[in-house]
Amino acid sequence: MASNRSRKGADSASDQAGDMLRDSAQKIWLAGLGAFERAKSEGPRMFDALVDQGKELRSRASDAADQALKAVREQAGEAQGKWDKLEQVFEDRVSRSLNRLGVLTSREVGDLSRQVEELNRQVREMMKASGGGAKAKAKAKAAPRAKKPRAAKARAKKA
Questions:
Q1: How far apart are CA 28 and CA 26, in angstroms?
Q2: Under 8 Å between Cβ of 111 and 105
Q3: pTM recorded for the entire structure
């Protein structure tokens, strides 16, 4: 009889485990059905809530991007200012070095060009005032011709 009792005890323990397993599976199934129904009924509201959260996140991201862009522009402006200062220092040093070597600047060359033009204008005016440039040229050409015949006469006498 002892063996019958132990079998009944083993059977009842396995029955209890089977019942617990069935109850657990039933609860899982019911929980899944409840989740499905809740998702079905709250799905549109949940979707709208997610859209609202996305809009808020986009706004924050846009603000952060604007701030980063502003910071980059400020730094670029500062860098440009520093670059301009460096360029000016370089130009000053090159200019001083060229000055020491006696190289004329473009402004000095321009001044000299204007002075040459002014001198040319004055010379033309002086030549016009002294009787014209054409008369002076004619006299200059005539004078050497006059000497040639005299030289030819002198050579003839010697011969």
A1: 5
A2: no
A3: 0.32
**pLDDT value at 114 more than 90:** yes
Q: Which amino acid is at 2?
A: A
CA distance 87 to 89: 5
pLDDT exceeding 90 applies to what percent of the chain?
Answer: 25
End-to-end CA distance of the chain: 184
Q: Would you kindly state where each structural domain of the chain is located, as residue ranges?
A: 1-75, 105-159
Give the C-alpha separation, 97 to 90, whole Å. Answer: 11
pLDDT of 21-45, one tens digit each?
999 999 998 888 888 888 788 878 8
DSSP annotation of 132 reads -
